[in-house]
Design a protein that fits this description.
Elements (H helix, E strand, L loop, with lengths): L2 H9 L4 H5 L7 E10 L5 H4 E10 L5 E9 L2 H8 L19 E2 L5 E7 L11 E4 L10 E4 L4 E4 L6 H5 L4 H11 L8 E4 L5 H13 L2 E6 L5 H11 L3 E4 H4 L5 H8 L4 E6 L3 H9 L1 E9 L12 H7 L2 E4 L2 H7 L1 H16 L8 E7 L4 H15 L7 E7 L1
Parallel strand pairs: 9-10, 9-12, 10-11, 12-13, 13-14, 15-16
Antiparallel strand pairs: 1-2, 1-4, 3-5, 3-7, 3-16, 5-6, 6-8
The structure holds NADP nicotinamide-adenine-dinucleotide phosphate.
Keywords: Fatty acid biosynthesis, Fatty acid metabolism, Lipid biosynthesis, Lipid metabolism, Mitochondrion, NADP, Oxidoreductase, Transit peptide
Subcellular location: Mitochondrion
GO biological process, one term: fatty acid biosynthetic process
Amino acid sequence: MSFSLLRQSLTRPISSSSRGSFGLLRFLSVKASAITFANTGIPKDVVKLVSYELNGPGPDEILVKTLASPINPADINQLEGVYPSMPAFTTELTPEQPSAIGGNEGLFEIVEVGSNIKNFKAGDWAIPRLPNFGTWRSHALVTPGDLTPINRDGITHTQAATISVNPCTAHQMLTQFVDLKKGDWFIQNGGNSGVGRAAIQLGRIWGLNSISVVRSRDNLDELIAELKDLGATQVITEEQLNSKAFKPTIKEWTQGKPIKLGFNCVGGKSATGVARQLGHGGKLVTYGGMSKQPVILPTSLFIFKDVSAHGYWLSAWTKKDPEGKGKAVEEMLNHIRSGQFKDVPVSPNVWSNASSDEAKLEVFKQALDNATKGFAGKKQVLEFTD
Ligand SMILES: NC(=O)c1ccc[n+]([C@@H]2O[C@H](COP(=O)([O-])OP(=O)(O)OC[C@H]3O[C@@H](n4cnc5c(N)ncnc54)[C@H](OP(=O)(O)O)[C@@H]3O)[C@@H](O)[C@H]2O)c1
């Protein structure tokens, strides 16, 4: 959303003349609240809850209310100040210091549309069309260009709110780097992440074989069973990935077929291990760095195996091709509708619009705290209620 729109959205007073100019459409005054940050640093220390009145919609605007919004690693990286793309910092909500609204992914319901809006109506669902929307807020005034419509049939709030980042990343990485055919193999670390689970399931739907690497834990057998249930061909631990003794087992599974594609969202030793499993000409695609360790690749992989290293960033693709992204979202939602695709396990955090600012901030901080812990197992999702 542009700076000017945000300015217009937040500061226009309700006047009796503007009320009258929208015919039967309602010009509403809504008590809204948002999670903002003016500085970057330790996430829980930099977030603030701001309440404000939102007046609208104007003739070309849409008033939306947020239904659900996850806390993804990239959202946390933005709070930490270690992400290359940031939402707009303005003084509209915080006159004392420019601040931005956090959150990049979420689901909105249209509350009211302006008199010139033809392609949305009250009750429709939509998601942000572009990154940096600022989804951690109860309401927003937007224009149609800010939204991608979502067909709400057969879809839950959480499913729609978490479809556009991780499932689309898996979709793109599986289709944009290597022309994988049925029976081909790919390998990935972070196998239990949102992206990893989506890649496993798309692999199953498209007839691909996958090896998913996870960190060892007390309930490892349970996790392996869960990922195999989603369609993982094999699930191994980081220790197995990096053990020379385990290599023949992988060869046996693949029956000597080269592993063509590797996904890395961890870095460090794990990335090296994934790259080592690739066959001649294999591609390693790095899309995250959860261990905060650099990717180090053995020279021999480049010289003797012609392995190549790549990066993927969904935000760049979304900005370049918002329509293509919209199609991928609809394709993934159809997989959910047909019962072929399970959404990520979530931990719901209820943000009641009726509760006090302190209570809302407390809910958010607890969710943030859970989202920053390793071995969390569940995606933290804010569920907004009236
Ligand atoms: N480039 C892009 O366009 C793009 C798009 C989407 C996501 N991403 C990135 O993809 C990654 C996964 O995102 P997500 O939303 O799918 O994640 P998620 O569902 O929140 O899961 C986090 C994953 O990271 C693992 N993890 C956490 N800390 C770790 C550590 N210190 N060492 C190794 N693994 C660790 C977790 O494993 P445990 O269960 O063992 O903790 C889990 O598999 C993130 O880095 C995110 O920024 C990138």
